[in-house]
Amino acid sequence: MARHAVRWQAPLAGLLALVGFVVVLQVRTVWQVRRTLQIPPTELEQLALILRDHERRRASLEAEVAELRARLQDYEKAAAEGRTAAARLSRTLQELRARAGVTPVEGPGVVVELADNPRPPRPGEDPNKTILHYSDLYAVVAELWAAGAEAVAVNGERVVSSTGINCVGTTILCNAKRLAPPYVITAIGDPDALLAALRRPAGAVEMLVAFGFPVRLARQTRLHVPGYRGIYRFEHVRAPQ
Description:
By secondary structure, this protein is an alpha+beta fold. Helix content is 51%, strand content 18%.
């Protein structure tokens, strides 16, 4: 029993000596730091308070940053949805512009070529009977619209809702542009339906052919109709509120 107690005394004494050495070293280190920095203990406590305040401030800022990042994600999502809505509106606007005739369009259809009667006027005959008039072009264009044409142009002039086909003397005007024969009418639509309408008995084409005016009809798989280059003037039309 005595030998057992003696066996633990030496390690215990060594451990106590080591603890005492560490405590003395820490006290000396703190004392040296205070002496080196020459900071009074009261100021060290204040610095500790400032440090803890900065730590709380940093935690608050980190929370604020997380909140701002979440809001930024919401804004980015809303912006993406806005771009989608803007793209959808842009497509709708392009479709409406095409329907209004202000943009070029392409598609299958037919080409109608009309020319004045090559026959020279007979003696005493009115020369106007051998030339095409605006009413002839208007009749052909009207039949194309009635047959389902989706876009029509006469000698490159797009026919829109405000287009007038008329004449001044022997000159035919379309969109106030002077036209010269031959008159080429380009119509986009179902070629079969358009040709059937043009070839119907007693139609405008048959009447022109009967009076000796050259008429050529051609089916096309791909036609280009330019956009309307003029302006729209509305004096009395107003959109309902």
